[in-house]
Amino acid sequence: MESPVESDHSVPTNPTVSLKKRRGRPPKGSYAAFGSDDEDDDEYYGGRSRRRTNRAPRPKVSTQSSGSTVVPKDLYAHRATLEDDELNFGVVDPEGEKKVNELGYLNGGREYRCRTFTCLGRGNRLYMLSTEPARAMGYRDSYLLFLKHRSLHKIIVDDAEKWDLIERNIIPHSYKGRAVGIVAARSIFREFGAKIIVGGRRIVDDYWEGEFRARGFAEGDLADPEDKLPPPGMPYNRNQYVAWHGASAVYHTQPSFEAQLPSAVRKRKKDPPKDATWLFQHAKATSAYNNDLAENIARKQTTGFFEPHSNLLHVPQNSQPSRTEWAHIAHDQEEYIAPKLDILVSLNPDIAPQVSLINVPFSVLASCPPHIQDAIRRRQEQELLQARMNGTLW
């Protein structure tokens, strides 16, 4: 029998023979997936540039963001090794090493802007919740922090460490089912320097002093001028970056529409009274508001209420007549052949049932001023007339 014909796509048995590459454009993501290096790419494209000639180059994105840092340019060129929960690139600054020890404790009276703590089973090394330095540096969450700063290493604590943090009131009990990430405080100081220090100043409190000096930063300038420092003798508020203490407003740096208006149009917020008469001022303001309401109601009683949907002017019902009387009046003049009748229409409003002044005692009436007595007597006469018309009084 004849041996079967081998297919053109069969794999050669000789290991020295290389496979021919497919023609055409490679699929997207092939370089990231298979880890091809630059030499293989140049061989595949025949030594040509991989950039398409009909596509404009990407614009350069400015790196001077709110969380940008200054690190040596060749820092990421070194291969990093994980040592003591930190990425060690093998590059240090001798002056920066004097400001922090190997466990993350700061020297020279410096303090972190975020809370620091030790973790169960990790010795006396200082750590931070990854969300707190992220908010302190202007990021919404810790994902962007570790995405932009590759020298930081995120640690996900296990259940035992998480319960220990809950018992020490470092995280709330509601976080027992979440993935809690922490980061070494020393690596945060190496990355951000003076920006993570309370009242930190450039070069004085930075780790990479040589890089800051080489790039022309002025020594002694505040690293974060927008940071609110406490008065002398008061502790720094580290809870402002804690999520369950209202840290959601920290990263809202976009100016509001009202802030862009001119000062003459912008509404000024009234400061609450701080003196001892605040209760009297509140009562006075409440009384003035009640007077305004009473004046508005009295004005509406006379002018009516305009309803824009129906385009009608509505008036109170108690100000309109509700009964009519028709009477025939005959003329007695002799020159008329036939008596002429005139029709008289009388409109009388109903007296409000909840107000009755007929049975006002004489002692109360005598104690009133004269004009009040006259008004009460006129009202009593109206009520008596109305009662006779209704047939309730004989």
Automatic annotation (TrEMBL):
- InterPro entries listed in its UniProt record: CRC_Rsc7/Swp82
Keywords, ordered alphabetically? Transcription, Transcription regulation
Q: Where is this region: Disordered?
A: 1-73
What is the name of the protein in this document? RSC complex subunit Rsc7
GO CC, alphabetical: RSC-type complex
State the taxonomy lineage.
Eukaryota, Fungi, Dikarya, Ascomycota, Taphrinomycotina
- What ranges does the record list as Basic residues composition bias? 48-58
Q: Does the keyword Transmembrane helix apply?
A: no
- Tell me the domain of life: Eukaryota
Q: Name one GO molecular function term.
A: chromatin DNA binding
Any one Pfam family match given in the protein's UniProt record, by short name: CRC_subunit
